[in-house]
Amino acid sequence: MDTRLVLSYMNGMMTLSCLVIALFFYRFSRSTGDRFFQLFSTAFFVLGVERIIILLSGGTKETHASVYLMRCVAFLIIIWAVIDKNRDAGRA
């Protein structure tokens, strides 16, 4: 089996998974009005876009700086969401 084909398939599955998770969190943010879900939706959307960039580059550019920057942004958004949620819980 061709390694490139398997990598493209796995990247496609991860892209779809990230975008579906982003849609679920977006739906939860709309129904609850909680910023925590909105930030998680944004983070998973960024991770999905990052995977699309990897797919469009042929699956070989995972070590490129833009990919790492997008991952860093996504994880910083997740950290921000958790800190923001815990800060709001402390005020109640």
SSE layout:
Layout: H1 3-32, H2 35-56, H3 65-91
Describe this structure in words.
- This protein is mostly helical and 92 residues long.
- The longest helix is centred in the first third of the chain and has 30 residues, at 3-32.
- The chain is elongated, with a radius of gyration of 16 Å.
- Helix content is 86%, strand content 0%.
- It has one domain.
- Helix 1 (3-32) runs antiparallel to helix 2 (35-56) and helix 2 packs antiparallel against helix 3.
**Which stretches are low in confidence, meaning pLDDT under 50 for 5 or more residues running?**
none
Helix content bin = over 70%
Shape: elongated
Largest sheet: none
Strand content: under 5%
Number of E strands: 0
Pattern of helices and strands: HHH
Structural domain tally: 1
Q: Structural class, judged by helices and strands?
A: mainly alpha
At a glance:
Helices cover 86% and strands 0% of the residues. The chain is mainly α. It is elongated and about 55 Å long.
Any descriptors?
92 residues; mainly alpha; 3 helices
